[in-house]
Amino acid sequence: MNISRNEQRALHVLALGGCILHERGDGPKITSVTCVTREGMLLADFDLTVFNQLRRKRLIESRSGSPYRISKRGRTSVRAQLDNQGA
């Protein structure tokens, strides 16, 4: 499966315990998303298009209105990378 660099970054954050907070407008459509690491930091290059791509590929999921988390399919498709907190 082809996964872009931004999608890989988001999946890596989610695999380490992060989540995606979403907000809805007046209707059922999601209007804004924020990817948060487990430490509470925000992922800068995460936007609605990356979110929709991850959701379309079923790499993330939400259960009963809770924040989006990585799915089992997402865990198997994320590439291993070093934790780059020092860089």
TrEMBL record:
Cross-referenced InterPro entries: YjhX_toxin
Entries under Pfam families matching the protein: YjhX_toxin
Polar residues bias (residue ranges): 78-87
UniProt-annotated stretches for the region Disordered: 66-87
Superkingdom assignment: Bacteria
HAMAP family in UniProt: UPF0386
Family of the protein in this entry: Belongs to the UPF0386 family.
Name by which UniProt lists this protein: UPF0386 protein ACFQ00_08160
Source organism: Sphingosinicella xenopeptidilytica
